[in-house]
Amino acid sequence: MRVVFLDDVENAGRAGEIKEVKDGYARNYLLPRKLAAAANAATVQQAEAKARALAKVQDKLDEEARAVADKLSGSPLVMVARVGSEGRLFGSVTSADIAEELSKRGAGTVEHRQVALAQPIKEIGRYDIDVSLTRNVKVSVAVEVQGEGGETAASLAAEAPAAPVAEAASAPVAEAEPESEDEAESDEEDDTDSN
């Protein structure tokens, strides 16, 4: 079925777009929710007018977003969190935390869905995160996660070589294990015979 999208539908189409979709998808989802209309001469003409108007609005939004993107890409976004001795965070830095910090830095209203973070950040360090400011404007933001005491990945890396040596010296010596399975089995048999 040929439809004209009245609103943006994720993974299907944008407002004003004319597409061929499966009949059941159109009848059961798009048409009842008024996300699309059946394509005829009148709706196609309305969709084209709406698409031109939306394109103008989108261009204006993209222009503003590019200015914000230039501002954001300049310096890293510093996130401070509680850190353990090995650089692991107590908790994590999520896309919501990054979106909140971006909003404070003058990026407008940034929602957590706009921050492309596959997994929450659980260690200190520097991460490059993609942020979609608008449909057409994406920016890569450097996020530096530091400890509350000013710990950084570089300061922990400097301390790290000394730590394994100290751990190796204090590690207990393991008891000698039997060399083969046959010896282990014969030892078990001896134990059961003596009972």
Describe this structure in words.
With 195 residues, this protein is of the alpha+beta class. It has two domains: 2-61, 3-Layer(aba) Sandwich (Ribosomal Protein L9, domain 1); 77-160, Ribosomal Protein L9, domain 2. Helix content is 41%, strand content 23%. The chain has six helices and nine strands. It has helices spanning 23-30, 41-72, 95-104, 153-159, 162-170, 181-193; strands spanning 2-5, 18-20, 36-38, 77-81, 88-93, 115-116, 121-123, 125-132, 138-147. The strands form three sheets. Strands 4-9-8-6 form a four-stranded mixed β-sheet. A three-stranded antiparallel β-sheet has the order 2-1-3, with helices on one face. The protein is elongated. The protein starts with a strand and ends with a helix.
Shape: elongated
- What's the alpha carbon Rg, rounded to whole Å? 30 Å
Can you tell me the CATH architecture of the largest domain? Answer: Roll
The description of the largest β-sheet is:
4 strands, mixed
Total separate domains: 2
CATH topology of the largest domain: Ribosomal Protein L9, domain 2
Percent range for helical residues?
A: 40-55%
Oligomer: single chain
Structural class call reads alpha+beta
| Unreliable stretches covering 5 or more consecutive residues | 162-178
How is the secondary structure organized here?
Layout: E1 2-5, E2 18-20, H1 23-30, E3 36-38, H2 41-72, E4 77-81, E5 88-93, H3 95-104, E6 115-116, E7 121-123, E8 125-132, E9 138-147, H4 153-159, H5 162-170, H6 181-193
What features would you highlight for this structure?
single chain, 195 residues, alpha+beta, Ribosomal Protein L9, domain 1, Ribosomal Protein L9, domain 2, 2 domains, 4-stranded mixed sheet, 3-stranded antiparallel sheet, 6 helices, 41% helix, 23% strand
